[in-house]
Structures are given as structure tokens and as C-alpha cells.
Amino acid sequence: MTTIRRILSAMALSASVFSVALPLPAHATGPHHGANQAPSTPLPGRAIAQIDQAWSSWTRNHNVRASAIAVGYDGELVYSAGRRRDPATPYPVASLSKAITAVCTEAVLAEIGHTFDVTLGDLAEYLAPHLAIPSHVRNLRVSDLIAQRSGLATDPTQVAFDRHLYDRAPQHRIHAAQAIAPTRAKGTRGAYAYNNANYAVLGTLIEAVSGQTYADACQARVLDPSGVRSGHLSRDWQALSGAAGWALSAEDYLRFAMAAFSPRTTRGARPFALPNASIGDGAYYGMGLVFRKEAQGTTFWHNGKLCVNRAGHDAGAYLIKRGPWTIVVNYAFCPRRGEDWALDRALWPIIAR
Predict the structure, then answer these.
(1) CA quadruple 269, 330, 20, 58: dihedral, nearest 10
(2) Given the DSSP bridges, would you call strands 246-248 and 277-280 parallel, antiparallel or unpaired?
(3) In the chain, what is the greatest distance between 2 CA atoms, to the nearest angstrom?
(4) Whole-angstrom Cα distance, residue 75 to residue 160?
(5) CB contact set of 66 (below 8 Å; sequence gap of 6+)
């Protein structure tokens, strides 16, 4: 069963909910806070139909139990749909949580007059009640945590991964302390190495500087201004908090991504002005997402997955933002053989035209 929620163009009917997939009218627009309002740029309706077809085919071809999609165009939510789940209901977004943490870190640092160049030693007074800072990381800059180039080689979140299902509280302070302990293995600072522990440290920093819980601080500074109302730490995965703990609806993560990485922001227009690291093939990691600069602008993307081989607990999410298009997909599925990138390959040609 597929549920489609959309608002038709001004020449058609008002908002409706359908229980089966229907062909889109030429200028269909989707739900945007209940307003019968088209985006500022005319919509390519055929592309929206092709996006829906590509996503639907992907779910069938890979036996995806449940999934939802939200599509944005020119900063507006224009289309959303769900297969056995509602695109307005929150589900885990896995590593897409990191972008929320990165934007939240930027906000709390600005409140105390700091930028990403500040070191953990500079923030020791704030961090002291939450996290002891060993001497070997006192000169570690927040920018290196954001860009995954900190040199922290230990990722405590990957040990006995399924235990996180039973940790019914955020564990970022514990994971951060384990990762920066003097006895832990050390990598090469400045070299890109993807590690959830970097974002566990950032989650702890957010709490220390803001005086709030990680979730409350980021809800107020990041999600509320983006119009997100469904966001909360996932019941199953909140132990991963700053790195992979959020649950948002497909529609709401789309709102966050379009607001936080709008071309009117430094994050969207000038990503090289913010912490980043080269990861090869012209791609860079920064602010919780992967990006590539292209002639027509910057493309952002990321995927995430939470895999424990237990019915009802596996989860994943995917984002791509290119030109006027933004697409978010979530799913009850564990991609293990590149199935998530099969979705990327299906959607990319449609929005790259």
C-alpha cells in the first residue's frame, strides 16, 4: 500500500490523501504546511513522476519493507509518499544526524564568540563538568572533529553494535571519553577518517557550552528555525545521539536540509569556507555531509544505516541535494551490498539533467 500526500496546483483540487499511487499532473506540488501554494519556480512535473517511479522500483527490487520519500524543489516541499509508512512520521535518520550536530555546534560556538578554530583546551572550562580533556587532545580543533580529520582512531560505537538498542539514554559523553582517552589508539590528525566518536565529542561540547541537553539545544537552535516539529532522539538509537541518534520524518529532514544548506547560507553556497576534508574523486566531507563543487553549484549527499539483523530495528536514510532539487528517503532496511547506492544511481540522472 502506498500513501501519497500532496497538494495539487492552483488549477486543480486542494490537498488530498490517496491510498494508491496516481499519475502526477504536469505542475503538481506537494504538502507545504497545508498551503495551496506553488514554488517560486515552475515545477518539472515529469521529473517528480520519474523520481517517484525510481524510488518505488528501488523498494520493490530490494524488498524494502517500508520506506518514505520527500522531494523539495527551489526550497519548497513539493511531493512526499510512503510505502507502509507515513512521510510525516519520524523514523531514524542514522548518520544523517551528523549534519544536525554540525549546524548545532556552529550555533552554540557563535553564542560564546568562538568559531570552529577553537580548541578543546580553549573550551576546557566549559567541558570540565562533562568531559576531562587529556593533554594529547587539548590542541585538537573543533574543525577537525567536524571534518572527520581529528586523528581519533577508536570508535567505541562500533563495538557490540546491537547493545545500543538497550541503552535507552544518550551515550555521547561515554563514547567521547572512551575515544579521547590517552590509552586509546591514535590516528593521523589532518587525515580524513570517518568516525562516529568525532560527533560524540561534538554532542558533549554542545551540552557543555549550551547548558542544555544535546537534544534540547539542537531542537531550539537548528530544528525549530527550520520548521521541524517531528524531530526527537530515536527510542531505539538514542545511545548514538550526536552521531546517529535522531529520528525525523522524511518531510521534516527535507525541511532541515533545505534550510540549513540553502544557497543563501555559507554552508550551501561556500562549503569550502567551513571545515572540510578531501575524501577523493573530487568529493569532500564537511558539516556532516559529503559534497562536490560542480559548474552549476554544489551537490550534497549522504547515507546512513543502522544494522542489527533484528526485525523492526534496522533503519537507513539517504539525502541528495543538487541544484533546485532536494530528496530525502528513509527505510526499514539494512543495505549491505550497495543497495543504498543503487537508489543514488536511480535518482541522480533525473535531477542531474
Answers:
(1) 90
(2) unpaired
(3) 67
(4) 40
(5) 82, 83, 84, 85, 331, 332
Q: Can you tell me the distance from the alpha carbon of 71 to that of 213, in angstroms, rounded to the nearest whole number?
A: 31
Which pLDDT tens digit goes with each residue over 120-151?
Answer: 999 999 999 999 999 999 999 999 999 999 99
DSSP letter, residue 12: S
Instruction: Indicate the pTM of the whole model.
Output: 0.88
Q: Which three cell numbers stand for residue 7?
A: 497538494
Q: What angle do CA 292, 344, 87 make, to 5 degrees?
A: 110
CA distances from 5 to 64, 80, 228 (A): 20, 6, 18
Q: What whole-number percentage of the chain has pLDDT above 70?
A: 85
Cβ 232 vs Cβ 240: under 8 Å: no
Strand partners, 158: none
> In which residue are the cell numbers 519556480 written?
41
Sign of the four-CA dihedral 257, 171, 184, 134: positive
The C-alpha angle 48, 50, 55, rounded to 5 degrees, equals: 95
pLDDT in tens, 254-282: 999 999 999 999 999 999 999 999 999 99
Label each residue of 201-252 as H, E or C. HHHHHHHHHHCCCHHHHHHHHHHHHHCCCCCEECCCCHHHHHHHCEEECHHH
Starting from the edge strand earliest in sequence, which strands make up the sheet with 91-92, in order? 91-92, 246-248, 232-233
In sequence order, which residues have a C-beta less than 8 Å from that of residue 44 and are 6 or more positions away? none
The alpha carbon torsion through 233, 234, 237, 238 (nearest 10 deg) reads: 20
Place of cell 540522472: 349
First to last CA, the chain: 31
DSSP state of 14: -
d(CA 116, CA 277): 14
Whole-angstrom Cα distance, residue 255 to residue 231? 11
Question: What residue type is 88 in one-letter code?
Answer: A
Torsion of CA 145, 245, 323, 146, to 10 degrees: 0
Dist. CA 299–CA 289, nearest whole Å: 10
Report whether 23 contacts 49 (CB < 8 A). yes
